Amino acid sequence: MSSQNHLTKEQKLNSKLFELSVEQVPIRSGFGEGLVLAADEDRNIVGLCADLVESTKMLAFAEKYPERFIELGVAEQNLAGVASGLAAMGKIPFITSYAMFSPGRNWEQIRTTITYNNRPVKIVGSHAGVSVGPDGGTHQALEDIAIMRVLPRMMVVVPCDALEANRATRAIAKTNDPTYLRLAREKTPIITTNDSLFKLGQANMLWEDEKPAVVIIACGPLVYNALQAARKLLPEGVGVTVINNHTIKPLDNKTILSEVKRTGAVVTVEEHQQAGGLGSAVAELLATNYPVPMEFVGVKDEYGQSGTPAELIEKYELGTEAIIEAVQKVLTRK
Amino acid sequence: MDHLTDEKILSLIAQANQIRQSIIEMLLVAGSGHTAGPLGMADIFTYLYFHKLKHNPKQPDWPERDRLVLSNGHICPVLYATMAHAGYFPLADLTTLRKLGSKLQGHPHREWLPALETSSGPLGTGLSQAVGMALALKLDQGRTSEQMVYCLMSDGEFECGNTWEAMMLAGKQGFHNLVVIIDRNNIQISGFTEEVMPLEPLRTKLESFNWHVIEIDGHNFEAIDAAVGQAKAVFNKPTAIIAHTIPGKGVADFERRFEWHGKPPNAAEGKMALKELRTLGGKIKSEHE
């Protein structure tokens, strides 16, 4: 079977997905476009930024709705608290910075003023993962999923491409949940289309196989690498399924357990520390429900460094080859 | 309502005394909690809840109410006692302070007591939230609204970086509707503020952040009233009222001693304190003796 036959039909994915000419757009740009659309519909949406309005892509919103945009300067602790106060008055605040600084720097303010108070603040952390590139390790958030998903009530969403980020932004604007939306800096391939399925809390199967031996559960831009890995494993006779797990909390237990029972082996993939992120969330589910051999593609308890995104993805063993190796390893443990 | 008559002042003094007694009673039952701050701020809480605030204890979520944010949540015995006396919930509930399942959590949590505007305890986060509330009012109602946001803070919170981030934004916004009342009692848990981390010259610091600053005796109702009135009249700046208070105010043995910041009275100390409050320091005979 060709690669296209393995792509889940109902998902209506980008038909050029596996072509070299596949369109590449930064995930953060999808957020910027989605925020304007959400704000067009709901006048209670306000945008707050800590001196990174251009690079977090809040600029289009700020230019269209200057009266609803608040620049707070380099003050991420205040960013969280002010947003909580606005939400207490009925606003839906989106707060943006780099993930290292929000939620990295202001975790306690997020806990006390947003989740403990149960306020519908949308925390948007851009520039997550090693693919930030040359800025180096200080700016590469690798712990943000962990520190957000341990907070009671916090929804955690990691879109796989710019289109999904656009739809995720509009979807989280309509819920009353405190939410963390994780974005990446670099241009990455467009995987989905506007006709693809997207529902918060519902994992999407993107790649199917009649007799899959492993399920790959991925989030963020590495979903593309997971699909590439699935494709390259075909000639080797290894069938897998690939799940785009965009909502890490609440986790789609049903879809994940169903695929794990079908395959009996799991590989998780994320641009995050192996500890505490998507892989940990899946492991927690499986340990208490259906333990099977599992491998984690993620950063191994270390910090990033400067380099090109491609170099860093390879160096920290997060890319297509690393996923293939993880699949082969987990197969030996079945 | 707005005019503070002599008669009203007398009633506020009596009310504050009742609230101080409730604070001691609560702490005695709880067996833990803070004593000095709540007693020191009893007059300001009494003034706000029994004279100044636009609020409705029978409809706590009334949209047009003023907002009161308590930033230093550890002085919540005074907040809870004042709210109970104002009619938000029965006085009998005060004895549940710090007990399992109580609406009166050791530090305020609005989910247990929905009449609270916010939860607090970790220091330095209240002003940011008050700024957010003032911003929302400014966005919705422009610069002429009557609705006010009051933020009550401790002096120790001006050691927190978060506080100054919020001060800077409020100064930038030039709020007409934000009033901060700082409990300048000069103590914190480890000692006197100027020894732990000097805050002075506090007034100059606040003014340099584009705030209007007023200093008052925090136990003088006329002074409190004049300061809040002035704060509401200042149109283009937020106002900080530095309220000089006596920690432990009302019980001579507790006054001015930082040791009383974070502990409750024991049974004997509590009995003595209640007697002192009920007899107005021995000036009258208490019928409770």
What does this structure look like?
The complex is a heterodimer of chains A (334) and B (289). By secondary structure, chain A is an alpha/beta fold. Chain A has 2 domains: 156 residues, Rossmann fold, CATH 3.40.50; 166 residues, 3-Layer(aba) Sandwich (Rossmann fold), CATH 3.40.50. Chain A has 12 helices and 14 strands. In chain A, α2 runs parallel beside α7 and α4 packs parallel to α5. Chain B has one domain: Rossmann fold (3-Layer(aba) Sandwich). With 289 residues, chain B is of the alpha/beta class. Helices cover 40% and strands 11% of the residues of chain B. In chain B, α6 links the parallel β2 and β3. The interface between A and B is medium-sized, with 29 and 33 residues.
What layout of secondary structure does this protein have?
The complex is a heterodimer of chains A (334) and B (289).
Chain A: H1 3-6, E1 24-26, H2 27-41, E2 45-49, H3 59-64, E3 69-71, H4 76-88, E4 92-98, H5 107-115, E5 122-126, H6 144-149, E6 155-157, H7 162-172, E7 179-182, E8 187-189, E9 204-207, E10 214-218, H8 222-233, E11 240-244, E12 247-249, H9 253-263, E13 266-273, H10 278-289, E14 294-299, H11 309-315, H12 320-332
Parallel strand pairs in A: 2-3, 2-4, 4-5, 5-7, 6-7, 10-11, 10-13, 13-14
Antiparallel strand pairs in A: 1-8, 6-12, 9-11
Helix pairs in contact in A: 2-7, 4-5, 8-12
Chain B: H1 6-30, H2 36-40, H3 42-52, E1 67-70, H4 76-86, H5 126-141, E2 149-154, H6 161-173, E3 178-184, E4 187-188, E5 191-192, H7 193-196, H8 202-208, E6 212-217, H9 221-233, E7 239-244, H10 267-278
Parallel strand pairs in B: 1-2, 2-3, 3-7, 6-7
Antiparallel strand pairs in B: 4-5
Helix pairs in contact in B: 1-3, 1-4, 1-10, 3-4, 5-6
